[in-house]
Design brief:
Shape: globular
Strand content: 15-25%
Largest sheet: 7 strands, mixed
Helix content: 25-40%
Number of strands: 9
CATH architecture: 3-Layer(aba) Sandwich
Bound molecules: S-adenosylmethionine
Strand order of the largest sheet: 5-4-3-6-7-9-8
Number of domains: 1
Structural class: alpha/beta
CATH topology: Rossmann fold
Radius of gyration: 20 Å
Oligomer: single chain
Length: 308
């Protein structure tokens, strides 16, 4: 039995593993799954400003910092979470259109969602003092009155089809959850305008129970077989590493700029305990904690598409 030091004391990896496998088995039951999916997944927390920071304004800030002004642009987001809070912030900052592709779309039109939309409008100047709120959005009728500038696609990105082509395709904390990273890369060729770009923040770190451990690599110690038992019925991380994303982008004919990278604290990790699969990978890739990628279509792919 392996007892490890954690951020808050001593935890027991075997016990946490059993709990995670149990949660996955429960999610395999259709009744439990229906009940669980009715609860918000990403939108938890009680302080309004914290909630808005985490679920609306951080996505807008990342877009502004790494993608530039969304004013006048069309923006499509993959995996927006429970509500259209980031979408409202992006439209509030002047985007011309917002689309969302999510395999488990939230209750975008419900009362809870609308409470958050009202809060975004009323607290706008506190969070975005330098950006004038787009008054066309601030009419209180979001999202019903905005159907002409919203596109809601409740499907996995693997099969999703959009009616519009977009200037920007973005995602935040989604790439590490998708089951097929080649599909994550390939969707740029279907959704982006020729001169558009993708902007994605991928969180390669531990999630849930594994986040509590002082060693950020505990979740990379399990074989794929054991890891799949903890998550085949729910959205645990796919454990794809940085270099695997780069390879998938290359296969999809995308140019990649790495705009941000940070690493795990190597001194906090016992690398000898990593599963063999990860020990055989480039170590810098295994140690990547967060990455932000900017993707554009390769000229060769565009020329081939024009010929056909
Ligand atoms: C961890 S949440 C991130 C939510 C939000 N972007 C945030 O930063 O809090 C991951 C989101 O990706 C969505 N998702 C996961 N796999 C997907 C797929 N294959 N296609 C579309 N959406 C997917 C989930 O439904 C969920 O809304």
């Amino acid at each position: 039995m392996s007892i490890e030091r954690t951020r808050t004391g001593n935890f027991n990896i075997a016990r946490d593993l059993v709990v995670e496998i149990g949660k996955n088995l429960l999610m395999g039951s259709s009744v439990f799954r229906r009940l669980r999916l009715r609860k918000p997944r990403t939108a938890v927390g009680s302080d309004v400003d914290d909630f808005l920071t985490n679920n609306a304004f951080t996505s807008l800030s990342l877009l502004l910092e790494y993608g530039g002004e969304p004013r006048g642009k069309s923006v499509c987001e993959i995996g927006a979470g429970d509500y259209l809070t980031s979408g409202l912030a992006i439209l509030g900052a002047g985007a011309a259109r917002y689309g969302v592709i999510d395999r488990f779309p939230g209750d975008y039109f419900g009362e809870t969602a609308k409470r958050w939309y009202r809060e975004i409008e009323s607290r706008w100047s506190r969070h975005c003092p330098d950006i004038e709120l787009n008054q066309a959005i601030a009419s209180g009728g979001f999202p019903e009155n905005c159907s002409e500038i919203l596109e809601l696609v409740g499907e996995p990105l693997e099969t999703a089809k959009v009616a519009n082509r977009y200037d920007i395709l973005c995602s935040f904390q989604v790439g590490e959850h998708v089951s097929d990273i080649d599909a994550f890369a390939e969707i740029h060729n279907r959704v982006l305008k020729d001169d558009g770009f993708g902007l994605h923040r991928v969180d390669f770190g531990p999630h849930g129970a594994w986040f509590e451990y002082a060693d950020p690599g505990v979740f990379l110690r399990f074989s794929d077989k054991v890891w799949n038992k903890t998550g085949s019925n729910r959205g645990v991380p796919n454990r794809k590493r940085h270099h695997e994303f780069l390879e998938a982008f290359e296969r999809a004919d995308l140019n990649v700029e790495i705009l941000f990278l940070d690493n795990f604290d190597r001194t906090a990790m016992d690398l000898t305990k990593l599963n063999r699969k990860f020990q055989e990978m480039p170590i810098d890739s295994v140690l990547t904690g967060t990455a932000i990628y900017r993707l554009t279509k390769k000229r060769s792919r565009l020329q081939a598409a024009t010929k056909n």
